[in-house]
């Protein structure tokens, strides 16, 4: 079964954290975005086409989330140790998994700066696109599950990472894990 879930808004550094944690602990991981990409490929669709399908047919989101939950519950040698997605903490909470459920909190300006450094573009455009995406996603999550990823209820740990570098965030997560050993 999963050892930890990592969640946060796009640009908060969750993917980087998972890469570092995987390397440090020699753990496998599953990225919710990777499930999305795999399903698009399985359906022979581009990511944009599949994203549009998800907006039009909420059952597709439900199917993807069911797959993520199945992976979280796997108890074999191939099961991922780290689950990363915006809703991973919620699913672990609802499934009653006794694992650290980490939310990485980063303010919107810093997230936009990180996205700009990674992908280019203007800060104004990135902030606007991020706000639009957040509104669309919030509406979808409320309609689907009556929740928002950033609600604090399911998380055992919230790391304020706006001013932290990736190694500092990793160190905080390692401290969390070591406290449980």
Element-by-element helix/strand order? EHEHHHEHEHHEH
CATH class reads: Alpha Beta
Q: Label the structural class.
A: alpha/beta
- What gap, in angstroms, lies between the N and C termini? 16 Å
Strand order across the largest sheet: 2-3-1-4-5
Mean pLDDT: 92
Low-confidence stretches: none
- Identify the CATH architecture: 3-Layer(aba) Sandwich
Largest sheet: 5 strands, parallel
Find the count of extended strands (DSSP E, 2+ residues). 5
The amount of beta strand, in percent, is 5-15%
Secondary structure elements and their pairing?
Blueprint: E1 4-8, H1 14-25, E2 29-31, H2 32-42, H3 47-56, H4 58-73, E3 82-84, H5 88-95, E4 101-105, H6 108-119, H7 123-145, E5 157-160, H8 166-180
Report on the architecture of this protein.
It is a single chain. With 181 residues, the chain is α/β, with parallel strands linked by helices. It has a single domain, classed as Rossmann fold (3-Layer(aba) Sandwich), CATH 3.40.50.300. Helices cover 59% and strands 11% of the residues. The protein contains 8 helices and 5 strands. A 5-stranded parallel beta sheet has the order 2-3-1-4-5, with helices on both faces. Helix 4 (58-73) crosses helix 5 (88-95). It is globular. The two termini are 16 Å apart.
In short:
This protein is α/β, with parallel strands linked by helices and 181 residues long. It contains eight helices and five strands.
């Amino acid at each position: 079964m999963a050892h930890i879930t990592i969640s946060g808004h796009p640009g908060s550094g969750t993917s980087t954290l998972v890469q570092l944690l995987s390397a440090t602990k020699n753990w496998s991981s599953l990225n919710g975005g990777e499930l999305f990409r795999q399903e698009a490929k399985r359906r022979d669709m581009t990511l944009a086409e599949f994203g549009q399908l998800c907006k039009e047919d909420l059952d597709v989101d439900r199917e993807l989330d069911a797959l993520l939950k199945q992976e979280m519950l796997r108890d074999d040698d191939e099961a991922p140790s780290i689950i990363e997605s915006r809703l991973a903490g919620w699913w672990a909470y609802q499934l009653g998994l006794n694992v650290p459920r980490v939310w990485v909190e980063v303010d919107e300006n810093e997230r936009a700066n990180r996205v700009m450094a990674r992908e280019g573009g203007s800060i104004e455009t990135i902030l606007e696109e991020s706000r639009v995406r957040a509104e669309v996603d919030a509406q979808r999550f409320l309609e689907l599950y009556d929740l928002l990823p950033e609600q604090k209820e399911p998380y055992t740990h919230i790391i304020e990472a706006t001013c932290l570098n990736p190694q500092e965030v990793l160190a905080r997560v390692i401290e969390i894990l070591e406290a449980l050993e």
